[in-house]
Specification:
The complex is a heterodimer of chains A (about 110) and B (about 200). Chain A has helices at about 5, 25-40, 45-65, 75-85, 95-105. With about 110 residues, chain A is an all-alpha fold. The longest helix of chain A has 22 residues, at about 45-65. The radius of gyration of chain A is 18 Å and the shape is globular. The model of chain A is unreliable at about 1-15 (pLDDT under 50). Chain B is mainly alpha-helical and about 200 residues long. Chain B folds into 2 domains: about 10-45, no CATH class; about 45-190, Nitrile Hydratase, Chain A (Alpha-Beta Complex). The chains are: A mainly alpha (about 110), B mainly alpha (about 200). The interface between A and B is large, with 67 and 62 residues.
Amino acid sequence: MNSVSSLEGSNVEPPRQNGELVFREPWEARAFGLAVALAETEALSWDFFRKNLIVEVAARERSLKDSGEAWSYYESWLVALESSVIDGAIVKKSSIVDRCVSYAARPHGHDH
Amino acid sequence: MSHDHSYSARSPKIRIEALEDLLVEKGLVDRSRIDNLIQKFETDVGPMIGAQLVARAWTDPEFRNRLLDDADDVLSKENISGAEIEHVEVKANEPGVHNVVVCTLCSCYPWALLGLPPSWYKSPEYRSRVVREPRKVLAEMGLDLDEETKLQVWDSSSETRFLVLPERPSGTENFSVAELAALVTRDSMIGVARAETL
C-alpha cells in the first residue's frame, strides 16, 4: 500500500484506500445507517442496541463454531437492530414479518 | 444488486428494507439522513483524521502532551465529533512499550477518527486471541516485537475508545505534517502495525 501517493493533495482519503471496503453489500450500509440514524434522534437508545449486539455476536459465534459457516458481522448487527426495535416496542414483530413476506413476494424486477 | 432473482423473506436485504420502510412510515427516521450517514462513513470519515492528529503530535510536543492528557479536549477544540467518540484515550508507543486496541465484546472503535473498523477487527479470532496471546497475533499480522517490549492491550467499551499513537519513523526529521500523516496507517493507530517507513 502506497499511502504517500494516495494522500497527496488530499485530506479526504476514503477509508478503503487505507484498508478495505467498508461495506461488502448495500444492505450492510443500510443496516449501519439505520441504527445510527435511530440513535441520533433517540428513537433508539444506543446502549440498548449495543447490549443486544453483544448478545447477538456472542450467540452467533457459538453457533458458527459448530457449523463452520462464515462470520458476517452485519448479520449480527441486523438481528440486534431487529430485536432492539421489537423489544423497545417501536415496531411490532408481526409487522416486520408481514412486510418481509410481502416484499419477498414481489414480482421480479420490483425488488428495488 | 441484481434484479434478476427474487429474495427470501429472511434474506438480510429484504429484512432491512422492510425495517427501514416501517420506521420511515412511523416518522422515526429520515431516509436522507441514512443516506448522509452512509456517505459520510464511506467517503468523508476515515483514518486520515486520526493520521492528522498523530502527525501533529509527532511535530509538536505541546500538542502531543495535550493529546495524551486529555484527548477529548483536543477533539472538541479541533471540531472532531460524531458517533462513538464520547471519550477517547490516546496511548503512545515508545521504545520498549507497544499498545494495541481490541473490543472483546463487539466492535467498539473510534469511528470519527478511523472510520469504520476493518473486518478482521470484528472477527471472533482477533477479539479473543489478541488478549490471550497478543505477541503471537501481532507477529502473524506482520509485526514482530522483541521479548523485552512490553505489550499493553486496551479493551474498548461503550464508554472509552482508544487510539494508538505510533512511533515516528526515523529519517523523517524534515517532513511536513502532511507528509508525516501519509505514513500513518489505520493499522498503526489500532496498534497492529508500525507507521510506514520511507
